[in-house]
Amino acid sequence: MIEENETIEEFLARIASDVEEAVREAAAREIMPRFRQLAAHEVDQKSGPHDLVTDADRKAELYLTEVLPKLLPGSVVVGEEAVHADPYSYEAIQGDEPVWIVDPVDGTRQFVHGDPGFCTMVALAHHGVVRASWTFAPALDQLATAIRGQGAFLNGTPLHAGTPEPGRDLRVATSHPDYTTDEQKRALLGLWTDGVHARACGSAGLEYLAIARGELDATAFSWEAAWDHAAGILLVEEAGGAHLTRAGEPFRITGGNALPFTAARDAATARRVAELLSGGA
Prior knowledge:
The chain is an alpha+beta fold. It has helices at about 10-30, 55-70, 80-85, 110, 180-190, 205-210, 225-240, 265-280, and strands at about 45-50, 50-55, 75-80, 100-105, 120-125, 130-135, 140-145, 150-155, 155-160, 170-175, 195-200, 220, 240-245, 260-265. The chain contains 8 helices and 14 strands. The strands form 4 sheets. A 7-stranded mixed sheet has the order 3-4-5-6-7-8-9, sandwiched between helices. It is globular.
């Protein structure tokens, strides 16, 4: 609970380790025991064969939904699997209460196939502003954290996105074609140009981490589900990066963005990618 005369930044610094413990415990209890051990009945499709959900997703989200509001009474949880069951619950992101935005297993397809490239993402937002984030890749033993105004860290070491090396092709991770409309496909074609090396993205959370580490120059994503972007957007910002929609505006977790949008290592790269996406449509 936020104490009298305590700022939100002071509160977040005080409870950050408790959130970290909750995220790690969710992975230890519900995710890692099922990694490379999934039975067929523990995997289901949602919208199609590329949109999977497992018992690990469901149970890890239930655990976090129970624990996180206890750290901040009056807060609510918006989780990917709960929203799939009740789409109306997504509207809490635009409400007055602080909201924990949870993606229990980002990169479920990788998780199902035994690939370690998946993570759990938690972000705390209020009035549409992401205040803190936690990105945990348990199979890689990597925990990335950020608190607004206090920097980004990987396993306790500060992250600095830096700037792309002059003269080298920009490395850009893009949405999988299965998740794009015809208009978005045309926009993404703007990246097929000299000076850009585009590839399909994996786990969104780990792509954001790659930007924050300076290993990837930018993303171009065509969907705006907050659980896929809230934690990563703050991580990139706090590492010195930037994000822009095709309309040249910062990405909003509350929705209504001109898609696709980009997150990038620096503001100049974000502008360049956003311009290419606008010219390709």
